[in-house]
Amino acid sequence: xxxxxxxxxxxxxxxxxxxxxxxxxxxxxxxxxxxxxxxxxxxxxxxxxxxxxxxxxxxxxxxxxxxxxxxxxxxxxxxxxxxxxxxxxxxxxxxxxxxxxxxxxxxxxxxxxxxxxxxxxxxxxxxxxxxxxxxxxxxxxxxxxxxxxxxxxxxxxxxxxxxxxxxxxxxxxxxxxxxxxxxxxxxxxxxxxxxxxxxxxxxxxxxxxxxxxxxxxxxxxxxxxxxxxxxxxxxxxxxxxxxxxxxxxxxxxxxxxxxxxxxxxxxxxxxxxxxxxxxxxxxxxxxxxxxxxxxxxxxxxxxxxxxxxx
Length: 310
Description:
The protein is mostly helical. The protein has twelve helices and two strands, in the order ααααααβαααααβα. It has one domain. Helices cover 75% and strands 2% of the residues.
């Protein structure tokens, strides 16, 4: 693949920065004393508001530069019935809401290592869904990698921690539910991006996810505030650093490096998050947990690497 400016090494530095920002998500969630649905709702709500100025700039850039601005959320391409697109965006927002509700809840029921490694399984789920639903061919090496990831997940589920929160079956199941739902969100997002720009899609999907989380929080009686100032600072940090900068920089980098390279870089998130958990919470994973995590990440690397070569 021929890369465009800026230089590839500079883009890769940006990707590492994005991984670092995203890796703080689990730490910030664990530091918050707010209920899980409140954390998720505030994160999505603030992210929606922050995307507003980005959308305005992107739309202006789209008017000036045409098709090339689509990657930044400018020009929209292709056509599809508006109601169809909006329906898919709502379903995507619903899946994103479940993802954050499940994953954030999992962090109070299992270790950071278990939660982040299990939720990182989503590329495997996307590939499997593409093979079953879209009849896309999957290489034998990818199948071997999938089997390795399953074996690693089984091993991880029996692993514990030397110190810190002990993992539970419910916590691990919620983290895996987070992987399933983010995989569905990503598959639907690919379709929507054929017809709507990234910025438009992000504002609508973040907004719909925030609205759904608010409704569920009201319905279940979870408090949405008022909280101490510290909590709002955590919500803002999750929105700005982890969502806008973290995921936003990934989207920017896709213009200059292959998507596979981004996916491989994301595999470092559980590593960074686990190291941060050791420093911040003195949460040290046990030997079986580390072994299972390494098998899963190695298997994911194999799948993404060989699928990217096709």
